[in-house]
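Lab meeting prep.
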Amino acid sequence: MLRHKGYPEAFLLENIQQHHVNTQTFILNEQPVDITRLTQAANNADLILFVSVNALLDANQVTAMKALLTLKRPIIGLAAYSPYDILAFPELGTYAVTYEYTQPAITAVLGVLFGEIPAQGRLPISLPGIKSAEYRSAEGG
């Protein structure tokens, strides 16, 4: 998880813990990121949720994600602002975009990630080198 002034990381963590009590966070707030500490923290995780904010403009986020990808653990990328973050780590298989890092956006995306609401929609942009995917609910909506 990233720490940026004004972003609701506490709200994100509280909402994740409502679904999954055994949750740990690693906030990237040092430059450069301590890869050893990061990988040790993530190595035993059942799943990693990596929240990025403008990763294309932040080598620290890219370095962190690349290190996490080497662990071969399940990772969900959550771009909390720009859908273009995926271009910084195109090998990531599971990716969601909120377009904003606000409490309503976090509530909505966690509802999708925890299966409470169906994922649906399509990015309104093209991402060079990234296969486009469209998500629909089980009802086909």
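Slide two material, second protein:
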Amino acid sequence: MRRKTYNDTMRKLNELMRDVCESFENAAYLDTAEIVGDQDGRFIEYMQVKKRLVKVRTSDGIHLTDAGAWLAIDVILRRIDGYLAFALEESEIAEQGKKLFARSGVMKVKILAPLREALPMAIPDIDMKISRFDIYGLGPDYTTFYAMNYARYELVMDNLSFGTWTVKVNSKNSEGKIIDIGRANIDVGPGKSAQVEVALVPGSGQGRLLMSMAWPAGLVGEPELTLTPLDPVTGQDARPIIAANGSEMRLPSGIYNFSATFVASSVPCSLLKPVLIMPGGITRLAFEIGSSDVLTAPAAPANLTITAVSDDSVNLVWVDGSINEQGFRLERRTPEGAWEGAADLEADVTQYTDTGLDFDTGYVYRLEAYNAYGSSAYSNLDFTTTDFIRRARE
């Protein structure tokens, strides 16, 4: 037996049984520890049989597996045959063993890396580095297996009974704390190896989230924060949870996507980085919303004013009414003409000199702000004439 106290007790009982058997002429004693143990009769879980590693003890450390039982039966029947001329042919024993080992299936387990390793996110204040995997299997007739894998994402299990197996995986950090859990079912049968992929998700429980945020002065009102649970396997969102700036929340473990809306101005903002909540952990999320995070078309520029500065150029100034423009488009036309592009300007610019104009000609100007989500309304119109010298003499 695996446990030393049990094993020592059984060895004492075996010695008593050996002494009793030796007192009878036709009695024989056979210690299974000598059959399915090491060369000194000590407990082992696997042993080499015809150049194959065979599991001979169940995971409870006490009972024999089917393979271990058939090894013991083979030896027992050979001994009985020698003593009592038992009429079970050796070939039949061998055939039973062949059937058993022919039904030994192979399973390849692939553990998928957790989403946090591929997607940057805010993580809690605990050790999230995987040190090892504990892999458990439950198969037909309650047969089981257990393996410990030091941070390798693939392993092979063989000598498995045919049928449906449930595979469970726990990832642990260097302190032995469970970080992720995973589960999958797989059918094992004859032929090629069965392959199963196990996706890891955060362990079950609750953790805390502490968050605070700042935002540009152009956004008015308090933001409404939304945390949307994200299925780390399918990537599908679930029902969102409403929070408040500066709040502390206790949440079920998992991955959450974050978004913000400024209710007074109805300005949504882009999803910021995902948040990971782990059992017993504290995740801190502090950030500042920038103008590029705002997900609406910009507000219109205002107070456009034009002044002629020479016979072929004019100066334009305006008020930037937006915090999230990517740039401005300036347009002009003559009083009887069509609008045409005058210039594409960078964000936050509030003045421009338009040159190369016709002498003594009137021009009307307007401009709009734009970003990836659309264009603003146009500014007010303004008009001037390039007769700077004549007007200066007047």
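Talking points for slide two:
DSSP finds five helices and 26 strands in the chain.
The first strand starts at residue 46 and ends at 49.
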